[in-house]
Fold this protein.
Amino acid sequence: MRMPSHGDALHIEGLSTGYGAHVVVDALTLAPMRPGQVVSLLGPNAAGKTTLLRALAGLHHASGAVRLGEADLLSLPLADHARHVTYMPQSLPQRVALTVLEAVIGALKASPIAGEPLSGHAITGRALDVIERVGIGHLAMEGLNHLSGGQRQLASLAQALVRQPRVLLLDEPISALDLHYQLRVMKLVQALARESGMIVIMVLHDLSIAARWSDRIVLLAQGRLVADGPPAEAITAQALADVYRVIAKVRADEEGLHIAIQDTL
Amino acid sequence: MDQAITREGTIDAYRRMTQRRILILSVIGLLSVLVFAADISTGPSNLPLKQVWAGLFDPASLTMPQLTIIREVRLPYALMAILVGAALSLAGAEMQTILNNPLASPFTLGVSSAASFGAALAIVLGVSLPFLPVDWMVPINAFLCAFASVLLLEFLARSRAAGVEGVVLFGIALVFTFNALVALIQFVASQEALSQLVFWSMGALNRATWGNLGILALVMLVVTPFSMRAAHAMTALRLGEDRARSFGIDVARLRFASLLRISALAATSVAFVGTIGFIGLVGPHIARLMLGEDHRFLLPASMLTGAFIMSVASVGSKILVPGVLLPVGIVTSMIGVPVFLILILRKPERV
């Protein structure tokens, strides 16, 4: 089998997953995701967003095809899967007596990552690079159990980023952050995707932020695809009415997409 | 925000933290050796350290009864205290990580009780496999029961319905169930088996023989390298199960292997010294407070802390009531409860 490389696109075809007889994602097929692309998954509660991410991460059984280049991700053992794909769960560990630096180093040492094995010195350096880029360099020696929710979320992001995956899956990565850090994280994620060709798929709830910082929006409702395309095409008043049951006005101009939610349907 | 923290400063602080941890490990190790020395120098018969020392390296200078006391009582008891403390504390540390529960320990979640039940069955019924001496049957039976109870616990911890509280409640149910079963066995046991059982249900070192020590040492020699090899994976598991799996760790396999180790450690300890409370809970907690949760340090520190506390308890069991050798399990509970209360009542420490 050929190993995935930088230029490989992610193909999701006929992907179904669920819990027992309960189907959560139903035969989902998406246009290939190109390297460097930032994709936001939007949809109402229980639309299957997290389950989809977990299936892509290899954490949840799924049928269909998920291919990175020629590699069939669904058939890879967890340890091989983890060389290419990293998942940042929504839940943040609490009461963990590890420093931010230890946690990020732990993420790197948990299993072999793609590329050359790193020396201990290189591991510390790489962990610190990521911690600084995320903006919590001053907290590197602070225990996770002493951080605020937002700081822990940034530490959690650093743990995922440090593995430098081909595909990065983020489940609500900015839900606990203040406005400044929300934008900062979105900018960082976009910049890293552009720099390294990493494919980013993230679950977001804020439509405006998703529209501003994503190349592509995938709109899900009840496990089915409602819209898939550039923000201005995917986010329309009609789509928002169908998916969220809200009355919205959506206007596009040179500054971007303006979304005003007016009422529930 | 303290912008004065530089990258060099952080790297330096990280290096100093590692050095401090190695220092702390050495200090606990040294303290354990000192308490061990105190342990072999105390006892109902008046043999101070100097004479014990002489007995070890210059046997001719002591009388035969004195030598027997040193070789068959003092040394095996003290060594057993060290080994059992280390084994139970390591089992507790792994259990707290694997079940993601700070209250987990072989004692609190019924693993020790299950092992007691298995051992009691072996003692009272005298069942033994044809090719094994009964000495081995007690620990093997204890292991089988302990492993069954641990599997039940793990099954519950994994099922979505039971949260952290569910596991603890189920563990308490296990404690009561197996204690009742042990009581039932005691009720029907012969007088001879009963006296063996009762003393042993309190946790005592007086069954320490060189043979038993050898078995426990062998179990620890086999188990500990596997524990240390799993240290990275266990550290990552502390960051959350989904996260650890997405980092490539087969959590199900990690759990299963760890539960095997926990059962072996808890069962062998229980089989030889009976139920010892609180070591498996307090040992890892103290280690965590001092060294954090990098399991490369936490696991050995837990073992050393457990060995240290158990040794202190062993000394205590000989000097608390002059002239009387208390069952050591009573002393560990007496030490363990206040230490445990202090631990949960104090403000969280900085890592």
